[in-house]
Design brief:
Elements: E1 18-22, E2 30-34, E3 37-42, E4 45-51, H1 56-64, E5 66-70, H2 77-85, H3 93-97, E6 101-102, E7 111-112, E8 117-128, E9 133-144, E10 163-166, E11 169-172, H4 188-198
Antiparallel strand pairs: 1-2, 1-5, 3-4, 4-9, 5-8, 6-7, 8-9, 10-11
């Protein structure tokens, strides 16, 4: 297999495209679409989002110290894209996209009710990097849509039909290939046969 060498660039794909909601007290709530977002710690639960300083939401989040990460389904893809190319300086995004504001017990900043998972974040640190600044935040709570709870009372994330972003394009997530640890998990059937041969 032959390879080509390219200059440094962002090629870590696919990534989640998320709709981040924020609001200054007494002002309209805003939504910014971000693809530079990710988990950075599990205990305590923490994540990061990276935002260009010139973006309208940058100062809102910096001033309020909180925001909500809303996961995006295939049904929300068009709204997600629209929020990424339109500025909250000029548009009331909730109103124009007919999205519903949902206020939880965790903070006054509203989430997007149509999103199946809302992650409430408190800002801990801003790391200046270059084109983007990284907002490092602790997760203080999560709300999920009850319609995706299965018969056993567990949240079925696969049923939400999340989408992913890859190199300027949006994709529906594909079929399940395995689950964590499947590559080393012993097959129960073959394990029983092995025990019989040894006995």
């Amino acid at each position: 297999m032959s390879k080509q060498s390219w200059k440094a660039g962002n090629m870590l794909y696919p990534v989640p495209a998320v709709m981040v909601s924020c609001q200054k007290p007494g002002e309209k709530a805003n939504i910014i679409t971000l693809a530079w977002a990710g988990t950075i710690c599990s205990d305590p639960a923490m994540l990061s989002v990276s935002i260009r300083p010139e973006r309208y939401s940058y100062d809102i989040i910096k001033e309020t110290g909180e925001f909500v990460v809303n996961l995006v389904t295939t049904d929300l893809t068009k709204a997600c894209d629209w929020c990424g190319v339109r500025s909250g300086r000029d548009h009331d995004k909730y109103k124009e996209l007919k999205l519903t504001q949902f206020t939880s017990e965790f903070m006054d900043t509203p989430a997007i009710e149509e999103s199946p998972v809302n992650i409430y974040c408190k800002l801990k640190k801003i790391e200046k990097l270059g084109s983007h600044d990284m907002f490092i935040a602790e997760v203080v709570g999560v709300t999920v849509s009850e319609e995706y709870m299965d018969a056993k009372g567990r949240f079925d994330l696969r049923a939400t039909n999340l989408m992913a972003y890859s190199h300027g394009e949006y994709f529906a997530l594909g079929k399940k290939l395995g689950k964590f640890g499947y590559s080393v998990k012993k097959n129960k059937k073959s394990s029983k046969h092995s025990k019989r041969r040894k006995s």
